[in-house]
Amino acid sequence: MEYLLHLLILVGIYIMLSQSLNLSAGFGGMISLAHAGFYGVGAYTAALLAVNYQVPFLLALPVAMLLSGLLALIVSAIALRTIDDYFIICTLGIQVIVFSLMNNWMSLTKGPLGIPGIPGISIFGIEIESKWAFLLLTLFFVALIFFFLKKLTGSAFGRTLRALSEDEIFTQSLGKNVYLSKVIAFTVGAMIAAVPGALYAHYISYIDPTSFTVDESIFILSIVIIGGMQNLWGSVVAAAFLVFLPEVLRFVGMPNAIAANMRQIIYGGILIFMMFRYSRGFVSR
């Protein structure tokens, strides 16, 4: 049961990450490979404030969101001067820079040694100690973020994002500020990514740079693509599918000599099949 609860908590974290990326990549048409960097900024901010200054979670969380949003604002102001493939390369560069800072800024992040001893979460004097309690807290933030993004994407701003993702020049001809809309979407998505980052840091109680690599950004983007662009419910289903699938494959009986490689082959094959079968995402809009 503890193992299942752990997986459900991870699913909740990846739902938040994929939905926050869906705002910029799906609705705004800005494919980003820097999302794990914003996730990491949230995690490191919450961890450093808790370990060094004993700042409670509810106070550290908005600080983490602001720092992640500020970084995204700077990044987007520069990267959005480019388009399409060049924008993706820019975000990849930012991801590499953020990871390098985490891995080499020894005086602040302790580099590859990571930050141990991150305390648990206490809210209004209530200690979140059990996995059940942490799962409920995670689901609360999942629901909150889902509700916020549903309202945001259904608003006039959301319709502008949908329009510019289809035809940016036409949207601009209607008098919409395309550049500002993209900056806002990218920044808000990064701020939301800091929430699961802070939760992850307190849940695991130890973080290091290896949790926030380019591979992690690709995995989050994969959830968005498999779940369907501009599809928040699809991100929910895809996150659960991609988190549980490797664990299910562990129980497939195979000789130890080939088990690890065969699981990777089967996993990749299933992903390819699902992309052909559900080319527009798991859940219909």
Tell me the strand order in the biggest sheet.
1-2
Described by strand count, sense and barrel closure, the largest sheet is: 2 strands, antiparallel
Helix content: over 70%
**Helices and strands, in N-to-C order?**
HHHHHEEHHHHHHH
How would you sum up the global shape? globular
What is the averaged pLDDT score? 89
Q: Which residues form runs of ≥5 with pLDDT under 50?
A: none
Strand content: under 5%
Q: Please, how many domains?
A: 1
N/C terminus separation: 33 Å
What does this structure look like?
By secondary structure, the chain is mainly α. The protein has one domain. Helices cover 75% and strands 2% of the residues. It contains 12 helices and 2 strands. It has a two-stranded antiparallel ribbon with strand order 1-2. Strand 1 and strand 2 form a beta hairpin. The protein is globular. The model has no long low-confidence stretch (mean pLDDT 89).
Layout of helices and strands:
Blueprint: H1 2-27, H2 35-53, H3 57-79, H4 84-104, H5 106-109, E1 121-123, E2 126-128, H6 131-153, H7 156-166, H8 168-173, H9 178-204, H10 214-227, H11 232-249, H12 256-277
Helix pairs in contact: 1-6, 1-9, 1-10, 1-11, 2-3, 2-4, 2-9, 3-9, 6-9, 7-9, 10-11
